[in-house]
Every structure is written in structure tokens, then in C-alpha cells.
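Handoff note, outgoing to incoming analyst
You'll be picking up this chain. Sequence as last confirmed:
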Amino acid sequence: MPSTIPVLSGLSEADRGKAVVNPILNHLPSETNELRQHLMCEALVRIEGKKGPHFDEAEGKKIVQDQIKDKLVSKQDPAKHANLEAALKEVTK
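Most recent structure output, in case you need it:
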């Protein structure tokens, strides 16, 4: 399905996913609000689990868990590390 957002319309489905996922992953370490954190994690799982017209929740969760674990390795700030740990717990629910 073509994107209605002009900036995304020329991108492949995978590139559109990255254009949405990367900003969420970059903001997640700073997010302290549990509801927003939950919604961000749900959005990431839905985006990463989309395979054409189908949705694979288990695959989406695995991909997002791996992405959060990669972020955890590079975060030295205890508050950001704690936020990512909370996000990882949210994804594993």
C-alpha cells in the first residue's frame, strides 16, 4: 500500500519501517512515562512483526527485544538503562 506521507512515499516497506522504528528506539531510553513506554513498545512490535499482509507477534517481539538489548549495551546512564530494562520487560509480557 502506498504511503500517504510524502516523505515516506518513495521508500520501500522495509525503509518505511526503519524510518518509523529508529526514532522510537532513540526516544525510548529517555521515556519515563509507563503508558507512553507501553505504546511505543506495542508500536515497535506491530511494525517489526508485519510481514506483508500478515502479522507475526512472536517475530515482532523477538526483533524488538534484540533491538532494545543492542541499545542496552551502549547506555551507561543508569536512568536510561533502567528505562530500557523496563521497555524490555514490557515487550516480554
